[in-house]
Amino acid sequence: MTAFLKFLSFTVLFAVLLSACAPAAPAPAPTAMPTMPPAPTAAPTEVPPTPMPEPMTIVDIAAGDENFKTLVAALGAAGLVETLAGEGPFTVFAPTDEAFSKLPEGTVEELLKPENKDKLVQVLTYHVVAGKVMAEDAAKLTSADTVAELPISIKADMGKVMINDATVTAADIVASNGVIHVIDSVLLPPQDIVDTAVADGRFSTLAAALTAAELVETLKGEGPFTVFAPTDDAFAKLPEGTLDELLKPENKQTLIDILTYHVSAEALPAADVVEQTLIETVNGIPLQVKLDGDKVFINGAEVIITDVKASNGVIHVIDSVILPPKDIIETAVADGRFTTLATALTAAGLIETLKGEGPFTVFAPTDEAFAKLPAGTIEALLADKDQLTAILTYHVVPGRVMASEVVELTSVDTVNSKPAMIKVEDGKVYINDAQIVITDILTSNGVIHVIDSVILP
Predict the structure, then answer these.
(1) SS3 letters for 171-202?
(2) How many CB atoms are closer than 10 A to CB 138?
(3) Among residues 308, 302, 336, 340, which one has the least CA distance to residue 320?
(4) How far apart are CA 293 and CA 204, in angstroms?
(5) Rg of the chain, C-alpha, whole Å
(6) What's the burial of 181, exposed, middle or buried (CB within 10 Å: 0-12/13-18/19+)?
(7) Would strands 128-130 and 90-95 be described as parallel, antiparallel, or unpaired?
(8) What tens-digit pLDDT sequence spans the chain (457 residues)?
């Protein structure tokens, strides 16, 4: 029994050992997962492109701004909307509603009436410059020509830009067809010279004289003109009764001669006037410009106000009426210091010559200059016409030679055909050995320079 139990235990142990040493059974294959079909790719959502804003024209910008209602209404009434919505480019100095409100009461309403369309067009086009002028470029200008064919003045001062009397309050509003600069006042086109003078109120006498001389239409014409305009106070300086005489119909030509002596047939701003020595007038006799410190004189009249702009020129205000000079002979006789010269010219038969058209430059010896000649010389000359003529014509130069030109010369050719020498020494000017003591006595047919000695050929 004991032996049987031992055998049974050994058998069980052997079976266990065999089982442990046997190769492991292969692991069961994993169960395959069912294959899912790929999810379909969603088509991309098409986002519509953001529309680009249409470029805004000058008119579009103005119409979209609450500050330009009056301007837009005015453009419509003037028929200028299509123009300023066009290709351009334009520069518009745009007055705000507040700017329009500064005009006298009822002005805007009058301008918007159909019968005033032409005037409205002129006002509006006076705010428009052809081309695109940015603020930086505008500040470098002194003026610009407008579509109204009238210039505007431009001034940059203390960081501000002024267009005439209006201040630019906003600049460089860029449009597709130009640029807008906002201004705080409406620009009113200047009137013609006559209307400007009448509206001023200080030129009633001048206006009456222009009417009497029938020159109103001339000075309302195209021009351009420069008018040196005497005030009522200037006319009042004339000797008593002078104006009344001039206004009489029988003195019309004399009045015309005086008035046209105040007019130049070109537009000369003050900056150009001061660069001149002589200014040609409609009268045909030049005006003389003289500078004395910071003062400017036209003949003997002081320029007291400059650059009053008109649509057809410019006005400079003067404090005296300018009377046209007489010819050389009449001027010398009226002076009183040239009686011997006048006697000699008469004896030589030269009076009519020196009253002629000229122009001539006469170096005129005074009575004291003739008195320096040896005793009996004058009497002898008055008896010898040929020699007297030779001496007198030696004092005459063809053409009008002003003092500023004389000092640049070393000699001048005289009517005598012999030259006279010019010398500048110690600030004094001499012709031969005679000193020129007074210069630039303007005459209708030339100029007189006074000398202190008779010059002999």
Answers:
(1) EEEEECCEEEEEECCCCCCCCCHHHHHHHHCC
(2) 21
(3) 302
(4) 31
(5) 48
(6) buried
(7) antiparallel
(8) 444 334 334 443 333 333 444 444 444 444 444 555 555 555 556 656 656 566 799 999 999 999 999 999 999 999 999 999 999 899 999 999 999 999 999 999 999 999 999 999 999 999 999 999 999 999 899 899 999 989 899 998 888 999 999 999 999 999 999 999 999 999 999 999 999 999 999 999 999 999 999 999 999 999 999 999 999 999 999 999 999 999 999 999 999 999 999 999 999 999 999 999 999 999 999 999 999 999 999 999 999 999 998 999 999 999 999 999 999 999 999 999 999 999 999 999 999 999 999 999 999 999 999 999 999 999 999 999 999 999 999 999 999 999 999 999 999 999 999 999 999 999 999 999 999 999 999 999 999 999 999 999 9
DSSP state of 375: T
The phi, psi pair for 34, rounded to 5°, reads -65, 135
Question: What one-letter code names the amino acid at 76?
Answer: G
Stated as kind and residue range, the H or E segment containing 270 is helix 270-273
Q: Which two tokens stand for residue 207?
A: 């206006």
Q: Kind of pairing, strands 225-230 and 313-318?
A: parallel
CA–CA separation, 112 and 78 (whole Å): 8
